Known about the structure:
CATH topology: Aminopeptidase
Order of helices and strands: EHHEEEHEHEE
Number of domains: 1
Shape: globular
Amino acid sequence: MPSSTMSSESATAPAVLGAEPTLRPPRLGDGAQLWRIARDSQVLDVNSSYAYLLWCRDFAATSIVAECDGRAVGFVIGYVRPEAPDTVFVWQIAVDAEFRGRGLAATILHALLDSVAPAGITTLETTISPGNTASQALFAAVARERGAGLRTVSLFETHDFPDSHEAEQLYVIAPAQRQEERR
């Protein structure tokens, strides 16, 4: 189940603190690093390593990797909802611990929305558990920065899951284009 987070512990050597990450679509070779970032976050539901490889191959057009010194330090993975072709669903977003506090998660989300806008994507959806206040603040800030509306509705209740899992609220940002693009 998706759940967004903005932090993760890094299992590799620290990157240069002053270095600015570059943003790009994921490549197949990023799958292991995305899996590591998700695992080390201790907040995200960790998908199988195979799933991250598939995300990098099949959903590169709706995903972004932040790279610094040749390694992934953050990512957002998403997909266009089949029943709502104007909606990108953000499955996961995470940033390595050493890159927190720089606004990288918001930068990655803005980059994703800017990259999918030419395809007619006007809405962003994600789910966030009630206890994940960092992600709640992130998505609220992105909506505010884009001059967009943000609404939340209950989507998955605890009893909907076959295992122990917090409820997930659906966050909807619309219109997702920047205000100046809507004019």
